[in-house]
Amino acid sequence: MTDLRDVLAVQPGRFRLADVDPGSTPGLPDERPVREDPRQWSAGQVAAIGEELASYQEKLFASAKMKATDRRVLLVLQAMDCGGKDGAVRNVLRGMNPVGIKAVGFGPPDDEERRHDFLWRIRRALPEPGHVGVFNRSHYEDVLVVRVHDLVPEEVWRKRYDQINAFEDELAASGLTMVKVMLHISKQEQRERLLARLDDPARWWKYGPGDLTERARWDDYQQAYEDALNRCSTATAPWYVVPADRKWYRNWAVANLLRQAMAEVDPGYPEPDFDVAAERAKLLAAP
Domain span at residue 136? Predict the structure, then answer.
């Protein structure tokens, strides 16, 4: 199968977000049954991938516990409102052991966070060795919402691209593998999803009048995303843009991107620091 990373990776300096159709399904395998309901097909694929992810996670956790590795993995999810970040996490990570997962959602910084550099709260939320971390929004908010709403001068947020690249290079050198995914939805799809929230009392809590304020700045956000993707897709931490109007494709694509990254990280199970045969013999001899 084609490496999905090659299909979805952002080529820095020449990427145009408008060229990506949010309803498209790039990279699907040719052997997929064309008559099968794609939602059912995707659910089966994601479940199978989930078993692989759980195996990789267990080996990563075990190796770190035995001090055999300092590797860790971080999935960064960015999207417009209703882009599907929560849904992707629920579907893709459901088979993993929660003990080895650290999921963090970033909203507006609080008073303490504002007293520090914008990366301060990010460093505090990074996964420990052996863990898989998930960022629902991230340090990229400081070149997205901060830019769109003029929360800091332009000369400040423009410097952050280089600061982010240096930060991510530092993390890669320390043993962290970052999988950065933008879930790309259309403006029409966002409208439908916002309406679905308003039509369902059980989902009213997910809606806020401010959502429409943000929606009114759609074009500004698209430009801010495009610039961030072009400036911060690097060899050590590339960006992947996943068309996300079709939830089944979104789940399949994110699961595959994470699997491919963890397969490369996979340290295997650690060697024991004791004589297995001797311990087995002692156990058999014991009453």
Answer: 4-285
